UniProtKB/TrEMBL annotation, chains A, B, C, D:
Its EC number is 3.5.1.2. Belongs to the glutaminase family. Homotetramer. InterPro entries: Beta-lactam/transpept-like (IPR012338), Glutaminase (IPR015868). It catalyses: L-glutamine + H2O = L-glutamate + NH4(+). It is an enzyme of class 3 (hydrolase). This is Glutaminase. Gene3D superfamilies: DD-peptidase/beta-lactamase superfamily. GO terms for molecular function: glutaminase activity. The keyword Acetylation applies.
């Protein structure tokens, strides 16, 4: 596995097309696109990594996975009355389907749905308390108290969050927001501003991997269901393509990070800031495609045998 | 496994809500909703079944899986220039996204995409030849020469195919149809009219299961990719829900059949004519949910261990 | 004319179906639907009225006409780089087309376009100054210093303005908002809260009527163009129907008021709080249809002759 | 008037930007863009013309006006149960709104609506009979038996009519087509293939002008209503702009012709084959804008006085 990750990091380093760094969050616009890191936390407890796996980055939308787990922990299946479970077929901040469907976002991984998720785990508490709880969840998952929120990024994001404000007010107009818009947006932007290294993110993703040595933060059934949502909705309107090419549940963020789960085997984190046209990490996606090919870990192929790669 | 299938068949038989039989194909409108069959063809060669597993039914859109395999065999990845790989987020015969995307259907499992698939495997040949080839593929997959097309159903379908004619002409207006519209529609409606029993369909689905005893009709990589498409797009705008609840790749048809693949383990076919609001078999979906829960075969959970069910 | 207005008022009074009063602005929800007023300010200076023509009501979206004139006075045709001139084909607060067209609202009479209008006349000034200027414009047009803003209605509207906040943030995300969202929304809701009687509104509409005795607040060309916009876009997705049935430029408001212009002849105001399914005054629309039939003032018929009605 | 038309023709001749000739109908693609004709048939019986006013051209969608009058003559207001009266806000052959509105086209001047119109006047008769009746109507309106259909253009159009076939089948899938699709399309393409000169078209448009010397083919009320539809829907998604700039009811065709009505005054026809981005004649639109400015005939300005231009 170590050798595989190093090969992948080397291939990425020599790829001349790094994709384009997102510019709409001013604080992130200056990130160096020549960075690439990858880490894998195995079900047996071992952790491997290569490249810039210890450089912290903004996890952005990858945070939606942790937020969803937290919100489901709060209200359980009642959440599904406020948000759907279907791929949206449209870009991450589209309002089109929201209008067709009376304010029920398609799924919790597009922005509208994630705002409902944030509103759900906010419940009656203050943003500070809610974010504290989110951090505790992530730190417990990663077994690492060093994970924190980058306040500067969060504020930079909040200052340019017109599209998300628009979605939140739109949801509110259908009665699908409970806390005040400002609270929800403040919390949401801080959630997106969580910073981790690949190694930390791979560790934090272990709660989605079945296994005795994995942190038991959610039930096996919920684990499977979150993985299913990551598979069908984790990459916006590029979800089908990721499933086709990689074949593992994954959630990407505009900061260039991707968290991928190999059920029963490992949690993998990859990061490179340049994005492809879908808004997902270009080198990260390509790396995961190579990873899946080499390991045979696509959930759509043989479920046993190939994993001698380790 | 035999016991499990029988339990599931019994539960289905006592469920008072059978869903609603589709009425838009006159020839199918009169089907008795009180029928339920299930069959599983295992990777080790054994076959189990329960209920009305030997009653033939119209596979309808399940045929899109075989048609896709055939078309990919013809033109390979060139096919992806004419059709996408993303869930549509909309109902099976919607034109909305087609307009947004210049005549490239979202995926090969919505009707517009399936028309492109049919046009692809038609290529230069006559409908008769093309359908002959499709039947040969299905019979080889199922190891059963008794599989045929119900001519009456095909004609009934063709006579009421205005929406599909509309989609085909729409595609043609973007240059995304090669054969004549009448040929494509005639072939497509006959393809939908293929008739099988649950046992035959489970057998025919084995080409999507990795295993030494399975028919090697497509490469391992293509197998994984077709499974990925079934997972993200196999149930129209209910695909996310099926992934969430069942967690296995599946393709449904309006005749009430569903083909489900457990990679490396089995091909499962279930059938009951009453549909849920998404247009997928109601009892069939519920049966597969129970099946997944009992077997632990969700691809999103543990990849080994649970399968002692057999 | 006096006789005609009285006949129309009598017919309205006896109509059992008054339409439904809008409920989404709490302060207006309690309005008595049994009210009906009509007034006509003629090009020769005479004014006629009947029914509840001296009861003040909330002009709501009728204010968009005055706001547009004011904004055009500020920036001239430069305004048309920020807003279009086409009917939207969709309801008044839809975001669908906004997404298709990169944040350029279809026309200044749907809410998104009106927010751009407000942002335009706000320019660098404070909401208080801008609203003062708007009131001066309306008072000058109506030759009546008694016209004011109902502060309670404005605040009630602001408190439930999620949909409009959503549109404003959406526009801002495309760079099509200059002032702060809060300023624009505050100003917009106060603009909608202008209160007039039918008599006052008919007087205020005279600046859109060509004639020596009419207030010359805009050029003849601008007058024609505003009238054209009222014809094609003045009644949301009921604009075509109003043109078909009435044949005069008109602008409706959710408070039940309609301002109608007969070019060269008169400005007519009608009011009744109950709405039809398009969100336009039900009795008001029917009254204007009868008015047009009796007077022959449709712009699509003979331009001279019939007006002996006076 | 003669002098005005000649000035306008001269201006057009010297304009370097002629727009782009439509290429999707092969038979029309080769038309010389340097042609420009204009003609006006006055309410008092006089006819003026300038430029290439005697060159026949394909009226294409201008035919929708005559077809609508014929269909209304057949079934009266019952027609409005099958087609709406609202501007579509979208391009002429869009299916988007058709899907939203269950197969009821927005208005009779977009293609979907015109197909319903054709189906309506076809009724039980053969295409030959129906087209004969349409030609009789047009010839009576123009007082000219020399008007005919260009068979070559009609066939060229039919051979590339995929989008219109798509719309017709779509309508049929909602039960909004009565005759067979092939009959409707054949009739529709021949209707579009009617050929006239500007002089003939101006004459034919007189039935929409109120006046003693005008042909009385429809009632005054129907005349006004057809004019209203031309104003709000006559130029597809450029209708608002035409109303804004010209201020008279008009209907354009992709062949470069525009029929404009000045109620009570004149019927005007202008033709130049190059189109603007909306698909309307570029020089024709500009000519009508100049014409409206010079004559003051916008229906949105003074209804009397200016017409001394004659």
């Amino acid at each position: 596995m170590q050798k595989l990750l190093e090969e992948i990091a080397t291939t990425a380093a020599t790829n001349p097309d790094k994709g384009r760094v997102a510019t709409y969050i001013p604080e992130l616009a200056g990130t160096d696109p020549n960075q690439f890191g990858i880490a894998a936390a195995m079900a047996d407890g071992r952790v491997f990594s290569a490249g810039d796996a210890d450089v912290p980055f903004s996890i952005q939308s990858v945070s939606k996975v942790f937020a969803l787990a937290l919100a489901l922990g709060r209200v359980g299946d009642a959440m599904w009355t406020r948000v759907g479970r279907e791929p949206s077929g449209l870009s991450f901040d589209s309002v089109l389907l929201l209008e067709r469907e009376n304010g029920i976002p398609r799924n919790p991984f597009i922005n509208a749905g994630a705002l409902v998720t944030t509103d759900t785990y906010l419940a009656g508490s203050s943003p500070r308390e809610a974010l504290g709880e989110l951090l505790r969840f992530i730190r417990a998952a990663a077994d690492d108290d060093g994970i924190h929120i980058n306040e500067k990024v969060a504020r930079s994001e909040l200052a340019t969050a017109h599209r998300n404000y628009s979605l939140a007010h739109y949801l509110a107009s259908f009665g699908n927001m409970q806390a005040s818009i400002d609270k929800v947006l403040g919390t949401y932007c801080h959630q997106c501003g969580v910073e981790m290294t690949c190694r930390q993110l791979a560790m934090a993703g272990r709660f989605l991997v079945d296994g005795d040595k994995m942190p038991a933060l959610v039930s096996a059934e919920r684990r499977r269901r979150i993985n299913a949502l990551m598979m069908t909705c984790g990459h916006y309107d590029g979800s089908g393509d990721f499933a086709f090419r990689v074949g593992m549940p994954g959630k990407s963020g505009v900061g260039g990070g991707i968290l991928v789960v190999s059920p029963g085997r490992a949690s993998i984190a990859v990061w490179s800031p340049g994005l492809n046209p879908y808004g997902n990490s270009k080198l990260g996606t390509e790396a995961m495609e190579a990873f899946a090919r080499k390991t045979g870990w696509s959930v759509f192929g043989v479920p046993q045998g190939h994993e001698q790669v380790t």
